[in-house]
């Protein structure tokens, strides 16, 4: 099977001498293996996180999702769902690896367990 990766942000070639931005808007990534659920209208699927950042996540899913579409993404069972956009997809033989961008705030804050806080106490 041929690897297929699609992005909702078409790549624009850099002019000669230009420097590609190296700073990530969403902050640093960390590896994670949390259960995740995506919902949109009557569609729902589950999968796992591969990594998380303040601005989004990389997920592995068994069912395909639509590039550019908005989904409610819930990481783990204890956290509220967040609205996110599918910004890239990589088709695999047994599903998809996808990149999601959280839409709730610029440079959004990770869920409490990811930054050391407890959701109920705020500490």
Helices and strands in order:
Blueprint lengths: L3 E4 L22 E2 L3 E6 L2 E10 L3 E6 L8 E6 L6 E11 L2 E8 L9 H4 L8
Antiparallel strand pairs: 1-7, 2-4, 3-4, 3-6, 4-5, 5-8, 6-7, 7-8
What can you tell me about this protein's structure?
The protein is mainly beta and 123 residues long. It has a domain at 28-106: predicted glycosyltransferase like domains (Thrombin, subunit H, Beta Barrel). The chain contains one helix and eight strands, in the order E-E-E-E-E-E-E-E-H. It has a six-stranded antiparallel barrel with strand order 3-4-5-8-7-6. A hairpin with a 2-residue loop joins strand 7 and strand 8 (95-102). It is globular.
In angstroms, what is the radius of gyration? 15 Å
> Structural class of the helix and strand makeup?
mainly beta
Q: Overall 3D geometry?
A: globular
Number of strands: 8
Condensed summary:
It is built from one helix and eight strands, in the order E-E-E-E-E-E-E-E-H. With 123 residues, it is mainly beta.
List the main descriptive attributes of the protein structure presented here:
Thrombin, subunit H, six-stranded antiparallel β-barrel, disordered C terminus, 1 helix, 3% helix
């Amino acid at each position: 099977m041929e690897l297929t990766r699609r992005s909702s942000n078409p790549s624009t070639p850099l002019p000669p001498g230009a420097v590609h931005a190296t700073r990530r808007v969403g902050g640093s990534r960390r590896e994670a293996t949390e259960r995740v659920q995506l919902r949109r209208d009557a569609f729902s699927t589950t999968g796992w996180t591969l990594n998380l950042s303040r601005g989004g996540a990389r997920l592995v899913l068994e069912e395909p999702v639509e590039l550019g579409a908005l989904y409610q993404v819930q990481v783990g069972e204890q956290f509220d769902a967040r609205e996110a956009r599918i910004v890239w997809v990589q088709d695999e033989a047994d599903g998809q690896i996808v990149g999601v961008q959280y839409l709730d705030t610029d440079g959004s804050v990770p869920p409490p367990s990811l930054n050391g806080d407890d959701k109920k106490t705020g500490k």
